[in-house]
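As the next step, I wrote out a protein sequence along with its fold in token form, included below for the reader:
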Amino acid sequence: MFGSRWITVGAILCGFAVASGAFAAHWLDKIFAEKYAGKTRVVAGETVPLAAKFLHDFKTGAEYQMYHGLALIAVGVLVDRRKSRLANLAGWSFSAGIVLFSGSLYLLTLTGVTKWGAVTPLGGAAFLLGWALLAGAASSHPSDSTAPQA
């Protein structure tokens, strides 16, 4: 039963990732060009327009949301097959990663409040933990996966 929930959540998050990417590609560039006109940021030793930097950051948030929405679908399939507690934990970790990583990038770019950037690495760590948990769940024997659902 929990597996279908992960699949549903993953599919919804993937849909929102597509919408976010479309928003960035078709409208956000104009909004950022106006909002951050004349402002720059130094990135890897080069000065770049802040509008371009933030557009790239927003698109990165959408891209990682898509990857990890797909990972949630994989979690759902694994949970349905193995009833794995590790897979459920991976799902929660991927979900937290999407909120923290992608969410902080969306907030940073849309508000201009750069303090949100401090949250982004926490989301990255949650993603890494999720992948480790998913690997553990996939490599465990079905008899090792009978722990109660999270």
